[in-house]
Every structure is written in structure tokens, then in C-alpha cells.
Amino acid sequence: MRKIRFTNEEYYHIFNRGVDKREIFADQKDLARFFQSMSEFNTLTPTGGIYAASFHKNNPLRNSVSKSEKLVDFICYCLNPNHFHFMIKQIADRGIEKFMHRLGLGYSKYFNKKYERNGSLFQGPFKAVHINSDEYLLHLSAYINLNNKVHGPSGTFYKSSWEEYLKGAEKADGRFCEKEIIIGQFKNIDRYKNFAEESLGNIRERKELEKLLLE
């Protein structure tokens, strides 16, 4: 049984990795499928599934669900070859549980069918940590946004919210994250960029912090 109890309007670090540390994204199409799922499954009204035609390379991200219809708000994310990290705020009752169940089940079915495999794709239930201070919130945002660099070279397949953060807080095409809680605490985006990169350097030096966040 999961020990943590999720509360609306609170922030959480959500993460998981492939069983036996295996890759969960084998190519760019897998990465695109997972990212699309992060939008499609984030709704109070269950979807009927995601059709393969929705993932053609020319198809834009569909992120038209209104805030009142969402289960969670994404603050930042990073998708690496064999694991992922989210910073999420729950905005609907049991929103995190419902969203992560749909995401894990839906993507696992897609991946197993594509690669003709059976069994679990992820290493057990997703992990969750309550973000209980502003300092933790800020440093964790840097850790997640730049997570592919935390581990050194991570191959071709990764995607994070870092590029979106560098655009600032303005509402722009392709907006996915609710970034204001982070970058609103800095005078400008360059200040946040400097903070995040400095924080990354500290994380690399402090292996005990990396272990705390990952294990």
C-alpha cells in the first residue's frame, strides 16, 4: 500500500523507471507517444484510447483540455531512456492516482504490443515524494529540467521542459507546463537559468542528494 496521501493543490515529485532498468523509450516515436499520453490521459473524462494515427510526426500536440477538466498540472518533466521525472500539482480528487494509472497502463500496452513482449514495463508502482518547502520546489525544478545532464550522456532519446522554461512564463504555442510558480520567483528567465545550472553543478557534487531523489 502506498504510504503517501495526495492532497489537492499540493506539489509532488513523481518518478519511475523501467523494470530491471530497461529502456522504456527505444526510439523517438516512443518518446512522442509517451509525451502525447501525458496530455491525452490528463482529463476528468476517461479517453477511449489513443489511436496510432494521432502520433504521425506532423500531428501537433493536442493540449486543448481546459484547466477545469484536468487531473493534474505539470510544473516540469524529464523523459530519459529508462526513467522519467515529473513535478506535478494535484488539482482534482485522486488526480495523481487516476492519471498515473492511465498513463502507465496505456503506455505499457502500446510498448508491449509494438515490441512483442509481455509483463511489466515499469519497476513497480510509481514513486512519489511530497514537496514540502519552497527551497525543495526550486532545486527540484532544476534537477528535473536538467535531469538528462545529471546522469551524463544519456543517449539520443530524452525530452524535458527545459526549452519551454527558457521561453519564460508567457502563454505561447506549445505551452505544456504551469511554470509561474517557479520562474515567478526570479527577476527574469536568465536568473532562473543561472540558478538551475548552478544547482545542477551542486547536485553532481552531492551524490547523496542524487540518491535521495532517485531511490
In words, what does this structure look like?
The structure is a single chain. This protein has 215 residues and is an alpha+beta fold. It has a single domain, classed as Transposase IS200-like (Alpha-Beta Plaits, 2-Layer Sandwich), CATH 3.30.70.1290. The chain is 39% helix and 13% strand. It has helices spanning 28-40, 95-114, 134-145, 147-150, 162-166, 180-183, 189-205, 207-214; strands spanning 11-17, 72-79, 83-90, 127-130, 159-160. It has a 5-stranded antiparallel β-sheet. Strand 2 (72-79) and strand 3 form a beta hairpin. Helix 1 (28-40) runs antiparallel to helix 2. Mean pLDDT is 85; it is low at 55-63.
